[in-house]
Amino acid sequence: MSPRPKVTPLGDDVYEIDTRMAGHTGITAGYLILGDRPCLVEPGTAGSAPVVREALTSLGVGPSDLSTVVVTHIHLDHAGGVGDMAEAYPAAEIVVHEKGARHLAAPERLMRSARMVYGDLLDELFGELKPTDAARIRAVEDTGVIDLGGGRRLESHYSPGHAKHHVGLLDSLTGDLYVGDAAGIYIPETADVRPATPPPDFDMDTALASLEKFKALGPKRLLFAHYGPVAAVTETLDRSAEELRLWVETVRKAHDESLDIDHAVAMVRDRTDGRYKAYGPDADPALTEKYELLNSTAGNVAGIMHSFGKLA
Prior knowledge:
38% of the residues lie in helices and 21% in strands. By secondary structure, it is α/β, with parallel strands linked by helices.
């Protein structure tokens, strides 16, 4: 028997749902905003869909009740379950940035690319993204509005750098900002912030501009998909920018010296040794393994290296 889903109330009808990606706890969060028009932010992977459905049921949201499913971007740890959720909640509108909309309607190309990267591990980590009827998908551009009912809304703000189809989402009532991966990975056990710079879309200057946009929005709290709420808004966004610059500077040095990716990974590990409590000789090995699965050093370095090629 699978464990009951972990649902954490965050106030003002916001609930954090542990989507249990690949069976891990505390690695990927979805968020339900209850009210007149219930909205699910970040459904997680296809493999997480049963967990998320059970969580919604426990919160009184039935198949005809969910109004909206919105994703910050279409990477499979965030949006892999969209097709399953659309099928289970036939009244829900699916909201995504315009650059990602076609991949939710016809995910074959996205799935082929993901399988090239992950191989057989794809099924264990993410499962299969099912297509969603294009008529149910609403594409937003630089900004957009999701009606939550009662005058409350989610405002989407285009925030590329991590991915070209990324948006942040600001709750008009609470000031919560759903940051997706644009501010990196937050590790709640240790309060570490690590970059998220996978290929093929990562671009440092664009990512830094998105962080500045987030600061200018004046959010009261950051809600990370990985993982959870953070009240220290300015400090966390500043730390995210600092870590990005450090990683890119280190990988650029390896690139300029014509070193291969293995050397670049080693240089990053040497340079960041001691910066993250979740890593290093004194860290909990299980915690390190969990976050390497989600946000591997090699994957981040590959994304940074790829960004240099785009600039050439």
